[in-house]
Amino acid sequence: MTARKKRVLTGSRPSGTPHLGNYFGAYKPLIDLQNSFDFFFFLADFHSLNGQDSAAETRQHSYTMLATMLACGLDPTKGLLYAQSAVPEVCELAWIIGCQAPFGMMTRAHSFKDAQSKGVDVNMGVFNYPVLMAADILLYDADVVPVGQDQKQHLEMTRDFAQRFNHRYGQLLVLPEPLISDDVAVVPGTDGEKMSKSKNNTVSIFATDKEWHKQVMSIVTGPAPLADPKDPAICNVFALYKLLASADEIADMATRYKEGGYGYGHAKLALIEKLKQVFGPMRDRYFELSKRPDELRDLVLAGSSRARMMAREKLDKIQAEIGVIGRPF
Ligand code: ADP
Ligand code: TRP
After folding, report:
1. Pair 222, 180 in one domain
2. Domain that holds residue 230
3. Is the CB of 110 under 6 A from ligand 1?
């Protein structure tokens, strides 16, 4: 028997415009593996419902994310591109997994604790977030899940739920490995905090020159005047430049910082040039695709019906083992 090709899976919430944190933490690692792994990429649109976006915003963000992924090089013929909401089986599995999820562990999830500490009304979507995410992963027997550091605990919980399930019912669920690269685990935003769609501190993967300029110019820097030597290791501009530039270019900028006579404004302009160099060639395709929402929808629905067949097959196997009556066919 030939071994099954390894599966790489990740999802992202259509809750804003995709940014460099998403790109380096999740999208690029997935795209890099698309030739050697079976890939699964989905819009986590059910997950985004626990925020405050309007329906129109959620829809718009979904198309923006699809156009971004395709323009970044995701090839839907090599794997599955689908929407979480178009595979309702995920909710069925979430219920089953939820029955293995200890309440105490759920209350220690960072996503829940963060929401609670902000004093917002915590809905069950926030509380159950890790269970739905576990179902996203376990439904497709994913082996590898590229994510940023913020999702590490969710991956640990996923593995824990799967172990509990397997212990009770037999080895039906695959334990996924997170793929978190140290150098991009937490991409800083323009304020130095973790870059996040919810924090208004993002640099977009795709934007007009003017938008990039505005985002980069808003990066918070130290007070040192132009003439002074500066420490690149603690500079937010340098941290982003490092993600995009070659080793020689990085070393060159570090030297300029340390020598003095090189201002944060210079570094920001160099960063804008890098954004244009790295993402510029893909940007036309992004704007082109963004104008064709109907095509994007057709594409994601075609992927979703394939995903749904796989999901149903997996759930039928699970139902057969857990003692429920299940489907009549
Ligand atoms: P956001 O936090 O901006 O709403 P998503 O929930 O859509 O992002 O996250 C999609 C993926 O991008 C996840 O794997 C997440 O860990 C990763 N990610 C988000 N922000 C960052 C960041 N600043 N650095 C590294 N990875 C990130
Ligand atoms: N929770 C992830 C985030 O907020 C998005 C997500 C949902 C996800 N389901 C997933 C990521 C499954 C990887 C695998 O960033």
Report:
1. no
2. 197-288
3. no
- Domain membership of residue 191 (yes or no) is no
| Three-class DSSP category at 326 | coil
Closest of 16, 25, 26, 51 to residue 129, by C-alpha: 51
Partners of 83 in the beta sheet? Answer: 43
Tell me, using a 6 A CB cutoff, whether residue 151 lines ligand 2. Answer: yes
* Test site for ligand 2: of 137, 147, 153, most ligand atoms within 8 A of the Cβ: 147
Which of 7, 9, 12 for mutating ligand 2's site (highest number of atoms within 8 Å of CB)? 12
β-sheet with 7-12: strand ranges across: 79-83, 38-43, 7-12, 144-146, 177-179
- Same domain? For 72 and 167 the reply is yes
The bound ligand whose nearest atom lies closest to the alpha carbon of 130 is 2
Could you tell which of 150, 155, 179, 198 is best to mutate to test the pocket of ligand 1, judged by most ligand atoms within 8 Å of the CB?
Answer: 150
> Is the domain of 31 the same as that of 77?
yes
What pLDDT score was predicted for residue 329?
64
State if pTM tops 0.90: yes
pLDDT at 3 over 80: no
Distance of CA 46 from the midpoint of ligand 2 (Å): 11
Cα angle, residue 43 at apex, residues 9 and 20 outer, rounded to 5°? 80
Q: Are residues 284 and 296 in the same domain?
A: no
Q: What pLDDT shows up at residue 198?
A: 86
Helix axes 264-290, 293-322, angle to 10 degrees: 80
| 327 assigned to some structural domain | no
Q: Of the bound ligands, which one is closest to the alpha carbon of residue 42? A: 2
Give the chain's domain count: 2
Residue 47 Cβ inside 6 Å of ligand 2? The answer reads yes
Do 165 and 314 share a domain, yes or no?
A: yes
Asked whether 166 and 128 are in contact (CB, 8 A), the reply is no
- State pLDDT tens for residues 36-71: 999 999 999 999 999 889 999 999 999 999 999 999
Asked if 158 and 205 sit in the same domain, the reply is no
The finding on whether 12 has its CB within 6 A of some atom of ligand 1 is yes
Q: Are residues 296 and 284 in the same domain?
A: no
In a domain, 284, yes or no: yes
Does residue 1 fall inside a structural domain? no
Atom number of ligand 2 nearest to Cα 136: 12
